[in-house]
Specification:
434 residues, alpha+beta, Jelly Rolls, Immunoglobulin-like, Glycosyltransferase, 3 domains, six-stranded antiparallel beta sheet, 26% helix, globular
């Protein structure tokens, strides 16, 4: 499995341009000034007041979506104003239904103290989850904030802001986190940085070095100052040395340090590889040459080839299962289609007939369709997650076998690469790519 994942990284690294939707690194939850989408609060000139003890609930707007997909966010931030120095405990609950108590996804608790504004940053990793984080974050419908003061504390607090954030301080983003190049060539990663805080941040960009790195990355500029919620761009360049063998790869971990606060730094992991010639997953070109030679020499090899060819000829490429309502998250294909894919890939390699490569192309475009394919449903086959991994192994193998045919356009490769990246990195958090 690890070898297939590594090959997938190389497979998608050949597409250096990717149609990518860049989310803004900050998104407010409702409107505390008008109390839109909130209950349990009282409007105030400077925010919204919450009685102690008391509970405020945010419910995702019904007119926008049935639920919020928060998988791409680092966490949430609350700005709270206290009126004395007595401790106040905040219990935060994320719910998968608007009636939170019966459908709890995750909980966390923090205690704050001190007169004046207190900023609470809660990464998803600080929550206790009832099920795997990735699944829960895709279906959030409500947030409850229960506040409990200590004996003798003020009767209320002021909630001045509640938002999703892409990072604790500095959000880092690049549309493609893995690229491949021939030895001696240099790859470029264009970066976007954004300040997720309400204060100006002096940012230092540097790389983690653990010793013995062969690829030496650079970033320009190395320093910048970002005003609150402002953004800027930078460029990372990585040269692939001649001594790196084909398929060799290294990770470059970029660190953004805001105002010298190393503990609150953001990280972005890049993977740069020395380019391989397709095919290379199931067999290399030399390996397929040996198999084709066996077909010429031996009857058993001819019979095996004929079996693959016959299956590939019989295969009618399926459409996705539920093209009209993909947001239900239904699976796209029955798992067994992986055997037809492999037959088509093998048939192409052993005959050179492009009709089999065209079938793989059509399947890959159905799978990666941005309107009703994997980018929407995040489910490929009809079985569980373990089988999903096996399913994508065969997808990668068949795609790798068909690439030399030349049937894939540049646009095809970009669309397919996007889907493969979604599978390889399903829990990528914007601004927190550790």
């Amino acid at each position: 499995m690890h070898r297939i994942i590594a090959c997938l990284i190389l497979l998608i690294a050949t597409s250096n341009i990717l149609a990518d939707t860049v989310m803004l690194p900050v998104a407010r939850l409702g409107d505390l000034a008008t109390l839109k989408d909130w209950e349990g609060l009282q409007a105030s000139a400077k925010g919204a007041t919450l009685a102690l003890p008391g509970e405020a609930i945010y419910r995702f707007p019904k007119d926008e979506s049935t639920h919020g997909d928060w998988r791409s966010w680092y966490g949430m931030r609350l700005d709270v104003q206290l009126f004395d120095d007595k401790p106040v405990t905040l219990d935060i609950t994320l719910g998968m239904r608007q009636q939170i108590k019966d459908h709890i996804a995750a909980t966390t608790s923090v205690t704050i103290t001190g007169v004046g504004k207190q900023t609470v940053v809660l990464p998803w990793s600080s929550f206790t989850w009832t099920r795997p984080t990735r699944n829960q974050l895709g279906s959030i419908r409500a947030v409850a904030i229960h506040a409990q003061g200590s004996q003798g504390s003020s009767a209320m607090l002021l909630l001045t802001d509640a938002k999703l954030v892409g990072a604790q301080t500095i959000w880092l983003h690049t549309p493609v986190q893995g690229q491949a190049a021939a030895p001696g060539q240099t790859v470029e990663y264009p970066l976007t940085l954004a300040n997720c805080t309400d204060q100006p941040q002096a940012v230092t960009l540097k790389f983690e070095h653990r010793g013995f790195e062969a690829m030496l990355p650079s970033v320009h500029p190395q320093t910048m100052t970002l005003l609150p919620h402002a953004s800027a761009t930078a460029m990372v360049r990585v040269q692939v040395p001649a001594r790196i063998p084909a398929g060799g790869h290294e990770k470059q971990i970029l660190v953004a340090i805001a105002n010298g606060q190393v503990h609150a730094s953001s990280k972005l992991t890049l993977t740069t590889a020395s380019k391989l010639e397709h095919p290379y997953i199931l067999h290399t070109k030399a390996g397929w040459d040996v198999i084709r030679d066996n077909v010429k020499k031996y009857d058993w090899a001819k019979q095996s080839r004929d079996g693959y060819v016959q299956r590939a000829q019989r295969w009618n490429v399926p459409e996705v299962r539920n093209p009209n309502n993909p947001k239900r998250g239904d699976w796209l294909f029955r798992t067994q289609v992986e055997h037809d894919l492999m037959a088509a890939g093998t048939a192409y390699q052993l005959t050179g007939d492009q009709q089999y490569a065209q079938k793989i192309r059509q399947f890959m475009l159905n799978l990666s369709n941005p309107k009703n394919g994997y980018p929407v449903t995040r489910r490929g086959c009809h079985q569980a997650s373990v089988q999903e991994g096996h399913f994508f192994q065969h997808i990668a193998m068949a795609y790798d076998m068909a690439i030399p045919s030349g049937v894939f356009t540049v646009e095809d490769r970009q669309q397919i690469a996007h889907t493969l990246r979604l599978f390889v990195c399903p829990q990528k958090h914007i601004g927190d790519h550790i």
